[in-house]
Amino acid sequence: MDGVSAPIRVVLVDDDHLVRAGLRLLLSGDDGIEVVGEAGDGLEAEGVVASAAPDVVLMDIRMPRCDGLAATERELRKQPELAVLVLTTFQDDDLVLGALQRGARGFLLKDTPPQQLVEAVRTVAAGRSILSPSVLDRVIAFAAGSGAGSGGSSGTASVSAAASDGGAERALLAALTERETEVALAVAAGASNAQIAADLFVSLATVKTHVGHVYEKFGVDNRVQLALVVHAARRGA
């Protein structure tokens, strides 16, 4: 058995037993993944997660008794290293932002192709974050819009960076080099790395390096979190 990695342990949390059955069938077909438990809502998940000791929790959002946002916050308070991957039919901006603010490592729609879902489980288990492309675009657009709009929207209030006075975020932004600031502002506006490279007349590799430096200085690991820090800083200025 030397050199053979232990399978990724997954718990499924969804109030639809047919969805859970489909996910179990899909994930169990991969030799590197083991489904070790299921729960029908956030309250049931508490006991299942405690007993099954998973690496990853696939979490629905809208469930009876205790929804996925509250369950995510509770489980990560107890086990910060746990990887929560939100999987839902909804892509409401406030739900996405709320899940990310509570520490979820990923947010995918339930129509995500099977192989991409399997890869997403592997990605979050490895400590990285992942978002459906459509979700990423919507969240960055929402963050950009909330920077100039009303601070009283439910989406804005659900995000700690957006809800702060911006002081800490302004300090993070001020710590960047001039070029890193240009890149961070472009990412926050929703620009792709290729677009940024063309606008700044630099190589794609250079942009990726700058983005990596900004991630490190901000203490974030995806473009959405970067955008939220930038918009919180600019809103509080």
Automatic annotation (TrEMBL):
Residues 169-234 form the HTH luxR-type domain. The modification 4-aspartylphosphate is found at residue 60. Keywords: DNA-binding, Phosphoprotein, Transcription, Transcription regulation. It comes from the Bacteria. Residues 9-125 form the Response regulatory domain. The keyword Chaperone does not apply. The keyword Magnesium does not apply. Pfam families: GerE, Response_reg. SMART domains: HTH_LUXR, REC. This is LuxR family transcriptional regulator. It comes from Curtobacterium oceanosedimentum. The lineage of its organism: Bacteria, Bacillati, Actinomycetota, Actinomycetes, Micrococcales.
